[in-house]
Amino acid sequence: MTSATRVLVLNSGSSSVKYQLLDMRDGSRLAVGLVERIGEGASRLAHTPAGGAPRERTAPVAGHEAALGAVAEELAADGLGLDSPELAAIGHRVVHGGLRFTEPTVVTDEVLAEVERLVPVAPLHNPANIVGIRTARALRPDLPQVAVFDTAFHTTMPEYAARYAIDVETADAHRIRRYGFHGTSHAYVSRETARLLGRDPSEVNVIVLHLGNGASASAVAGGRCVDTSMGLTPLEGLVMGTRSGDVDPAVTFHLRRVAGMSVDEIDELLNRRSGLVGLCGDNDMREIRRRIDGGDERARLAFDVYVHRLKKYIGAYCAVLGRVDALAFTAGVGENAAPVREAAVEGLEGLGLAVDAELNAVRSGGPRLISPAGARVAVAVVPTDEELEIARQAYSLVNR
Ligand code: AMP
User: Fold this and answer.
1) Is residue 167 part of a domain?
2) Pocket (CB within 6 angstroms of ligand 1)
3) Could you give the CA distance from residue 247 to residue 224 in angstroms, rounded to a whole number?
4) Per residue in 120-175, pLDDT tens?
5) Which residue among 23, 150, 167, 227 is the active-site one?
6) 226 and 358 part of one domain
7) Considering all CA atoms of the chain, what is the largest pairwise distance in Å, rounded to the nearest integer?
């Protein structure tokens, strides 16, 4: 048990660190901020203390160590320094936890070594997460550093949902299987959806659609994930801002053999130049809607491809779950883009799914139902809060 009540949440990317300091007595934010363009000439730190004016620094920040040092200075200036005895833990978002990490985990040398062993399956994410943890540990070696894994919530998937139908020896030798990502968000949103329905998570089956710049769907039965759309990497599944989601794997052989592209070029094409951006040049749903309103055909096609894929996953997860109590939309697109929500369930009345046009048009920051009164399946907008979920998980671990 600890009497300290604060948790610092760090989300370290390759050139950025996002952070939030939370007060776990009520989940409120004491400070939030971001350091971006680390290692580039024009780095920027944006810091906002609760109830205070936002501050900005634009001096170059050489690496993650310097970035965390600058964050520590900003927090100290608000009387929230990292040396405070109020700090109970630092919670780190770690993208890939493989099969081993099914729960939030206090970081030890052995845990770090295992996260490092997973770099080949998460080359874009785990290295930055590791640097973030190492740096935070050096700053406060006495404090529990808790790793919260994006994959953890999906480790309950049954083997038949996690397996790709490829040669088992080859798959196992290279740890190729479906891991799923955005797990912290799927966990939080599925639980909040049950709460919105006034029911216990163990009683409800929920389809969660996390539609941000990255996007994934999950089927959650009684609080446990039974299927999710992302796989070995976050490339599989739904159409995303810049990622293709599902394609025939033979597309990659074709690009290699016929178009003469290198593996790295294909990787870049599918991860960064595909999805909405590949289809129409824009990955922001607001801009796509503006273009559609102006009669733009490519934007229309991009929207239709996006929605068609969503529908296929909704239908598939209705079948996987058998009984669906709720469909929850979350993240940037899911929380804000009413036309996407409307189009995604259009024509699915046979599955018990419908949205009420007036409720769907309401703009609000809170969880809300958008299905017509008495609908068989509740359709909901449930804002995600990955930082709060990471902080809660880290805090409950150090408070056991
Ligand atoms: P996220 O990754 O969850 O931050 O989501 C970012 C994406 O949300 C952006 O790329 C936009 O496509 C989308 N988005 C954010 N705000 C809106 C809005 N008001 N209307 C439609 N889409 C939005």
Assistant:
1) no
2) 212-213, 241, 283-286, 331-333, 336-337
3) 27
4) 888 878 899 999 999 999 989 999 999 999 999 999 999 999 999 999 999 999 99
5) 150
6) yes
7) 63
